[in-house]
Fold this protein.
Amino acid sequence: MAITTILRRSISSVLPLAVVRRTVERRNHHHSALFTALYEYGSSSSTLSHKPCPRPFASTPLLLRFYSSSSSSSSSSSASSADDTLVRAVKSTIKSAEESADHEAKLEELSDGFPFKIVDKPGKEYISLRRVYQGDLIVALVFLLDLYGKNHKCNDSPTFTMTVRVSKENGTCLRFRCKLSVNEITIRSLRVKNSETSSEDPHSIHAYKGPDFKKMDENLRNAIHRYLEIRGIKPSIYNLLHEYAWKKKNEERLYWFNNFKKFVES
């Protein structure tokens, strides 16, 4: 009876170890078989022709090309639409400016007795007044577009800057810098230029420019003013120049807008 009990205890203690050992051996055998199969598959596949694995995004360049072409087409269409809108707006502005321009009738009325020929070049901010008086050539450059400067007051009429040259046939000339207002002409400076003196001469910038006109004797200043008035540089030309300035400004705007429209349409 005692011997039977001892045998049962021995078997019960050994049996779990055996079961565990068999389980581990089965698992090891399973893993070994798996690795062996993988190894054999790899070895056999190495002898076959290599076929690249298909890329899941192989169609991406095609999609990008489609997106790029459609985006480019959309951008081109938008740009064309924007250009057309801009051209229509410019044409409308030009038409409005042409309809509002009505200076010719008044200029014709004011030009009665005006002694100068007006030379006007498109794109320039000034006009040129020209005449010959007793053999002297009088040329006055009048800057018209800046009708109202920084120091202009609401109740003031605009003033114009003028450069007047009175030239002799031998090339000598007087050059006046003036300011023309509705009631007077103010002489700012007076220079005498000889025919031998050239503006390209580097020494001419160091030439004596003459006395300060404001500090000259009053009788002399009055005589110089009279000298210019006889030759047509006097306050009475102001009204015509003022009207012409508005005409000039409108024409320059039209000239600019037409050039702008041509550029956009080309």
About this structure: Residues 159 and 181 are 5 Å apart (CA to CA). Strands lie at 117-119, 126-133, 136-143, 160-167, 173-180, 185-193.
